């Protein structure tokens, strides 16, 4: 499953459109991840404050969303473009790849919440594919 | 035995009370068919599914979307015994409709996203957690009679 040229345009346009609220999207998505999927908190045991609206969670959500935007800019070569991030996730963070899928779901729930009119089924499918391909690129270096 | 907290029951009831089944049902099913096109395999007799516009305007799909949501309402009304409430539906989906149970999860993800669109920020993380727990119980009950 790869992105068609049309889908790449859809993804780039949509993320450009929502970029002014990217911090909010990231913070909200990560907050949801730890509330809806509490097992994900296991990766953040080193934070003193694990409350969904607390500083560390929101700040990290912003970081993660920054990564998503980096992926958008490297949409023509995700595996190559996200190599460093993949090495980070594979060798340092060692996040089980199943979590990429559930974070993608949380991101899309937030996009749907904040941009109900814009997040049409046609845009949903392109974004879903894109996030799945980002997850694949991130898992590239795992083994 | 599924244990529901008072907060979870309240959240799930609140979400359902705000739903227009004739709106959310069709939106949910058509979104599933568009985002996960392989699910169209079960709808060969439903007419024109050639593209997103056709799917979204298909009256048979719309009607079926409402049917699915009414089915979910049965789970809502029997939250403490969804397993048995859905025994017949599970057999139907397994023996007659032959739906791959993995698809139940795909449809429930689409429903979550449609409801998020409807409710906006009122769909808090806690509401999402309660609703997804409800849907996972439904999905599990639907898959139970498969063999």
Report the strand count of chain B: 0
Q: Given the helix and strand composition of chain B, which structural class is it?
A: mainly alpha
How much is the radius of gyration of chain A in Å?
Answer: 15 Å
Low-confidence stretches of chain A: none
Strand content of chain B: under 5%
Determine the N-to-C terminus distance of chain A.
21 Å
Portion of residues in beta strands of chain A equals under 5%
Number of strands of chain A: 0
What is the quaternary state of this protein?
A: heterodimer
Protein name (chain B): Globin domain-containing protein
GO biological process, one term (chain B): hydrogen peroxide catabolic process
GO molecular function (chain B): haptoglobin binding; heme binding; metal ion binding; organic acid binding; oxygen binding; oxygen carrier activity; peroxidase activity
InterPro entries (chain B): Globin, Globin-like_sf, Globin/Proto, Hemoglobin_b, Hemoglobin_oxygen_transport
Topology overview:
The complex is a heterodimer of chains A (143) and B (147).
Chain A: H1 5-17, H2 22-36, H3 55-73, H4 78-81, H5 83-93, H6 98-114, H7 121-138
Chain B: H1 6-17, H2 21-35, H3 52-56, H4 59-77, H5 82-85, H6 87-96, H7 102-119, H8 125-142
Helix pairs in contact in B: 1-8, 2-4, 2-7, 7-8
């Amino acid at each position: 499953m790869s992105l068609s040229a049309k889908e790449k345009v859809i993804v780039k346009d949509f993320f450009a459109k929502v970029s002014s609220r990217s911090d909010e999207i990231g913070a909200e998505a990560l907050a949801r991840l730890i509330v809806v999927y509490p097992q994900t908190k296991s990766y953040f045991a080193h934070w003193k404050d694990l409350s969904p609206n607390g500083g560390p969670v929101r700040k990290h959500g912003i970081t993660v969303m920054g990564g998503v935007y980096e992926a958008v800019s490297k949409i023509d070569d995700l595996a190559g473009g996200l190599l460093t991030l993949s090495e980070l996730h594979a060798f340092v963070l060692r996040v089980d790849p199943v979590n990429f899928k559930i974070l993608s779901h949380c991101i899309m729930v937030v996009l749907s919440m904040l941009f109900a009119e814009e997040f049409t089924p046609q845009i949903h499918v392109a974004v879903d594919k894109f996030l799945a391909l980002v997850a694949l690129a991130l898992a590239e270096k795992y083994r | 035995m599924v244990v529901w907290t008072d907060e979870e029951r309240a959240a799930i009831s609140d979400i359902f009370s705000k739903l227009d089944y004739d709106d959310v049902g069709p939106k949910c099913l058509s979104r599933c068919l568009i985002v996960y096109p392989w699910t169209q395999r079960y709808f060969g007799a439903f007419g024109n599914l050639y593209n997103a516009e056709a799917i979204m305007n298909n009256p048979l799909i719309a009607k079926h979307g409402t049917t699915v949501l009414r089915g979910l309402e049965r789970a809502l009304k029997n939250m403490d015994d969804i397993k048995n409430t859905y025994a017949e539906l599970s057999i139907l989906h397994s023996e007659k409709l032959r739906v791959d149970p993995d698809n139940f999860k795909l449809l429930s993800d689409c429903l979550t996203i449609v409801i998020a669109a409807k409710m906006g920020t009122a769909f808090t993380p806690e509401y999402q957690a309660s609703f997804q727990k409800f849907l996972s119980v439904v999905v599990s009950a639907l898959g139970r009679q498969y063999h």
